[in-house]
Amino acid sequence: MKTVLLLGAGSDIARATAHEYAKRGDRVVLASRSIEDLEKTASDIEHRRGAEATAVRFDALDYESHQAFYDALDPKPDVVVVAFGYLGEQRKGQAEFDEARRIIETNYTGAVSICEIVAADFEKRGEGTIVGIASVAGDRGRQSNYLYGSSKAAFDAYLSGLRNRLFKAGAHVATVKPGFVRTKMTEGMPLPGPVTAEPERVARAVLKAEGRRKNVVYVKGVWRQIMGIVKAIPEPVFKRLGM
Amino acid sequence: MKVSAWGNYPVVEAEVREFAGVEEARRKIGAARRMIPQGLARSYGDSAIGEAILSTLKNNRVLAFDERRGVVRVESGVSLAELVEIFAPRGWFLPTTPGTKFVTVGGAIASDVHGKNHHVAGNFSRHVVEMDVALADGAVVTCSPEREPNLFHATAGGMGLTGVVLEATIQLQPIETVFIAQETVKAANLDEIMTIFEESASYSNSVAWIDCLAKGASQGRSLMMRGEHAKRDELPERRDPLWLKEKGTIAVPFNFPGFALNSLSIKLFNELYYRKAPSGLDTSIVDLETFYYPLDAVHRWNRIYGKRGFTQYQFVLPKSESREGLKKILGRIAESGQGSFLAVLKLCGKETGLISFPMEGYSLALDFPITRNLFPLLDELDEMVHERGGRIYLTKDVRLSAESFDRGYPNADLFRELKRRYDPDGVFQSRQSKRLRI
Description:
By secondary structure, chain A is α/β, with parallel strands linked by helices.
């Protein structure tokens, strides 16, 4: 039985992932800002899966609190899934820096802050896996969502470096890149069916990436090809495309 | 996106939003001009269909369970199927259940559903200890028969028109096994089946399949299924009393041509009917899914009615009017040649609630494929039902007129008044509520 910490557990992806782990009998610790709502998810997991689930308060943007948050966890997690994120609004972010900063700080700064703390512990213990939920939006900046995309690109590069560092210690870092996922984050957007995944599918990708020590996993493999093509378009051409 | 309910008619363009948890519900309700809450859309017609739909399906957590008392607290999008799956193995079953388990708790409350045990257990809302309802202004109000009783009674059976049920506390019933000791009794005509219903009052569950095509002396030819939750010592020894075997389902892969259906059900009915012993009584132990949800084993059986869709016509007549009324109505249906071969007959118990469907008397439900000739026939049937003091089930309806609604539901105006109190701007509306001028 593993102890799995889900950061940003209010998200549809994290919730689905918690259920998948609980189905296997693992113990899940749900962390996010809205503790009252999390406690409901925890009791749902306990009643449906018969697994142990607890809720703890965690705020990705409250960097100062991260060390104390992690120190208070007992037992320490074997798996940490970094699933918090903020999509924000691109146009609003262009006009108001506060929005841009919230996107960057949630997706990148906050993630770095907590991951460093987890990494230090995993390095010392010589075990553990961090699964970071990045995004195909980070593979190339596009006018429609480059604030979100660049913050995820930074997180992606960070995870890659951290994987490199923790490898020697025997700990692992997996990067999971979903494309479109049908969640509350994307509600109301016209999502193209064939390349859109359900949160449960992302959840299974997380478990697979963690269990088989995969490095980078695209949810719905076709995204690897799609983004391969998008990345291959020469910049002089790309800048003319209104993507 | 294009949406329709179980009858596949009508198909309309609607915007569908989802929510999970109280805060998101309040946000989405506050942002919408109008909407109708929807669960699994197992209502047949347009009662959970509108231009904007608020789906409860992601609001589906099990929040608390008192193992000793069998009281469960859930969010409204949890389905009865999930409750059975989670709690039957622990010795607790639904207090009452409709003929499909693929409905949500929110939907069961909004339709105030009933089941084969209506004559003893009443409607679903009788077992709702308490619920939280989000009103149009975003206020979340806790109500029960004692606390905010008006909101409670208007929401139970209120077709989602008072607000959105967010959470509910439900009293389950204890069971020793997941099996039913079932008796099947055959009746040669309507008088016989009505006598059998009267004699079966002491059984917790009773329902009959009735042959709608039989005429003359065999009009009302039917098969009654009645039963009790089996006790542990009634089971063969090797059976695990609380192990609910996962059922395989067969799917209807595409829209059937309409004519295929009647020949199938005629065959099935005749086989069961003529297999019974001459005494007419047959006993067996069946699992509760077979007993309560025979059609759930056929995934998407609604497709059997083809692309044009179908409706289910369900009415109830006061007991004193039932015998003559049923004879007339069955006669008219047989003559029309439009209805399904099989109908479901049930003797309901006492009437409760504001605009909940059941009243003491006989309820009959049968399917009609949608055709050009159908609605005039149903208007005619409405008249036969209403002149006898009966009513039509809103959850199945897709074409009732406002006048007919008022005739069948004496509390219609009281309900409209309460609706205005809780939803003065008419935020919650469905195609049906507009038609019925609620």
